[in-house]
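This section describes the prediction task in plain terms. A model, or a person checking by hand, is given the sequence of a single protein chain and must write out its three-dimensional structure as a string of tokens. No templates, partner chains or ligands are provided. The sample shown here is typical of the held-out split.
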Amino acid sequence: MLIYTAVGYFLYDFTAMAYYGLLDKTMVIHHAICIVGMSLPLTYDMSANFIVMGMFIAESSNPFMHVRVILKHYGLRYTKAYECMEITFMSLYMYGRILLGAGVVWNTCLCQHNHFMVRFCSAALMVQSVFFVGQMISILKKRFKEISMRKEQRIKIRWFEPLDKEELSILGIRPAHKAEKHIL
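The expected answer:
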């Protein structure tokens, strides 16, 4: 039942992202891999335990990602709440998808009973996760540089009140005027 729900979610998410113009090549590939990889256990009535383990590890960072996006949508990008959600999301993503995920992918690929495409999709998601982690490291470096600059300038970030134009100007930050593209 859980896997039916997950496949349905990925079909919905893909459609919603396409509708709102948030799809890029990496998200198309990600959703295709997830839909195919999760549909096979339903078709062949095997491998569901590996899919559930992978989902639990991979999706545990998502609530923090979603809260981060909601805060950004409400203009709270330069707040402590946003920063905490971003750092927590990326830390959990890296820990779950790379450290814990490597073991799940290894076991999935070693199990001779798993369909070849389940193994392939598992490995492909790991490769994509490594790619995303590279992007996240670059984002985190930028974020920690901002934190360091704020400390040097003695600018205190607030939980739910964003930095004002003057504070951003002192830090050399120009907030985006148009909608920023959803990356992660």
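For orientation: The chain is about 75% helix and 0% strand.
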